[in-house]
Amino acid sequence: MTTRRRFTGEFKARVALEALRGNKTVQEVAAKHKAHPNQVSTWKRQATGGLSEVFSNGADHERQDRETEVRDLHAKIGQLTVERDFLAGVLKDTGVAISMDGRGRCMDNIFIERL
Q1: Phi, psi at residue 77, to the nearest 5°?
Q2: Which are the contacts of 55, defined by CB distance < 8 A and separation ≥ 6?
Q3: For the chain, what are the domain ranges?
Q4: Taking every pair of C-alpha atoms in the chain, what is the biggest distance, in angstroms?
Q5: Using 50, 70 and 90 to split pLDDT, how confident is the model at 92?
Q6: Label partner for 102 (CA 20 to 30 A): which of 14, 15, 26, 78?
Q7: CA of 27: how far to CAs of 30, 52, 113, in Å?
């Protein structure tokens, strides 16, 4: 049984660029580099699809990162809200009230009172 050939990114780029030039057919390029024509076509398609990233100024990545961060933060806010509401319901059922002294610090200013 033979092992699969592993091609480096540099080799793939070189073959895809040669296929993109159009001087030879995909089959001729594949035969020259001893690769399957389907592989060469796939590399060619990936190269043309990735060209927009080469010429982008990075603003798209920053915007996408920001959108992902906002989505994650909204999910975290939702999770914390559900947890808070659940705990408030449990405490209300047991007759415990939580109040703060109004300074905005929660760890050292929480007072638990029995109703």
Answers
A1: -60, -45
A2: none
A3: 7-55, 57-115
A4: 86
A5: confident
A6: 78
A7: 5, 26, 81
Amino acid (one-letter) located at 94: T
CATH number given to 7-55: 1.10.10
Residue 105 has pLDDT above 70, yes or no: no
pTM for the full model?
A: 0.48
Within 8 A by CB and 6+ apart from 98, the residues are 88, 91, 110, 111, 112, 113
C-alpha atoms less than 13 angstroms from C-alpha of 108 in its C-beta half-sphere: 1
- Reported as a single tens digit per residue, the pLDDT across 4-62 is 889 999 999 999 999 999 899 999 999 999 999 999 999 999 998 888 777 777 677 78
